[in-house]
Amino acid sequence: MIYSMPLYEAKFKEKEEWVEITDIEMMDGLYKVYNKVTPAIKEMIQGKEIHTPEAVYRLKFKGGDPTEIPAA
């Protein structure tokens, strides 16, 4: 199967809807809270949402089955 680049979404505290964000925006938001963002990104790959004081972040899957992503 063909996969596209990962897309990230955030729901900011003042907003009610999810908005698509860049990977740089997501990393910037996570670095404010986490010393290491890799564990948080791994959780997003597993389908979890990451909560910070400013927003909730998640990975938006497009194309393919996320359970078929090969292990690194």
Describe the structure in your own words:
With 72 residues, the protein is α+β, with helices and mostly antiparallel strands. It contains two helices and four strands, in the order E-E-H-H-E-E.
Strand content of the residues, in percent?
A: 15-25%
* Rg: 12 Å
Give the ordered list of helices and strands.
EEHHEE
What is the topology, as strand order, of the major beta sheet? Answer: 2-1-4-3
Percent of residues in helical segments?
10-25%
Q: What profile does the largest beta sheet have?
A: 4 strands, antiparallel
How many angstroms does the end-to-end distance come to?
A: 17 Å
The count of strands amounts to 4
Strand-helix topology:
Elements: E1 7-12, E2 19-21, H1 23-31, H2 38-45, E3 50-51, E4 55-60
Keywords:
single chain, 72 residues, alpha+beta, four-stranded antiparallel sheet, 2 helices, globular
Give a nutshell description of this structure.
This protein is α+β, with helices and mostly antiparallel strands and 72 residues long.
